[in-house]
Amino acid sequence: MPKAVSLFSGCGGSDAGVIAAGFDVVMANDKLPYARDVYLANLPATDYVLGDISKVKEFPNSELLVGCYPCQGFSQGGVRDPSRRINTLYLEFARALHTIRPKAFIVENVSGMVRKNFKHLLEDQLKVFTEAGYRVKAEVLNAANYGVAQERRRIFIVGLRNDLGLEYKFPLPTHGPDQMQPHASLREVIGELPEWPEGEFYDLDFHWYYLSRDRRRGWDQTSKTIVANPRHMPLHPASPPLNKIEHNVWQFAHEGRARRFSYREAARIQGFGNLQFPDTAPGSLNMRYTVVGNAVPPPLFEAVARALPAIWD
Ligand SMILES: C[S@@+](CC[C@H](N)C(=O)[O-])C[C@H]1O[C@@H](n2cnc3c(N)ncnc32)[C@H](O)[C@@H]1O
Questions:
Q1: Is the pLDDT of residue 209 over 90?
Q2: CB 292, CB 226: distance < 8 Å
Q3: How far apart are the C-alpha atoms of 185 and 189, rounded to whole Å?
Q4: How far is the CA of 248 from the centre of ligand 1 (A)?
Q5: Helices and strands, number each (H, E), in the chain
Q6: What is the tens place of the pLDDT at every residue in 90-104?
Q7: How does pLDDT run across 169-184, given as a tens digit for each residue?
Q8: What is the number of the ligand 1 atom nearest to the C-alpha of 301?
Q9: Which residues are catalytic?
Q10: Residues within a 6 A CB radius of ligand 1
Q11: Is-above-0.90 flag for pTM?
């Protein structure tokens, strides 16, 4: 099995995809203790180094390096400040790239990076990785087109080491109206779960900001994007539909119980199977939502990893 090293590994969404694509993840790193706990409860074979990446000085040899450095600077929900330190964490990824010199690397990040005011940050990343000796390609992919029951557009940056003389090609969509298989629906992934899983969903009021847009999709649709902040989690399809009253004002169409997705449903919608959530002390409800919402859908990462050329012997 070819070996992979993973950085900014979170609870292991990207790594579950890498493992499914046939790699052995020999090291993972993140600074969030509960992310480590969830990761190891589900993927126990990996050596998970807990701590700030800047303190990690050694990396094992590997053929593949993957990493999803954080995105607060670019994401719709986060503070859009292109100058924050968080936006330079890709340099830590580049440091690992220089040290390990794997045959290939895969990066995932929020698609907001292609917007005009952040474009220079994306260009910096492409430049740094190209100068490290890689042929680099970037593309925005929608998880829904790869069998995930969720609209989730993310940018992937893939590099192949120059000496291989090869060009990476992104995987073509496999699911959707023009594909062999239809988009996966909410019914398929959460249909058989309990309708009111008390204690497993964020149960605070729907404030005006929440109701400033349509937060609900029906059972036979794909989900809206699963986010890390539970307050903004989309509505479960058993909730009444929302009607638009005026610009940025939506209202429930009728009386009835309404709730957000539970963290367990969110994990299913992200494309995890039955993700295990250990009861370790920092594992509050919010923390469970956070690690799930931060994750890369495993089937999407798997598709990107499987599209790498056979360069491992
Ligand atoms: C987008 S999430 C990664 C998700 C993960 N790849 C997955 O699929 O589950 C980004 C992660 O970077 C971690 N992180 C942020 N700054 C870090 C740092 N300085 N050192 C290590 N990890 C960091 C966060 O804790 C967060 O889990």
A1: yes
A2: yes
A3: 7
A4: 32
A5: 8, 9
A6: 999 999 999 999 999
A7: 999 999 999 999 999 9
A8: 8
A9: 71
A10: 8-14, 29-32, 35, 52-53, 68, 70-71, 89, 294-296
A11: yes
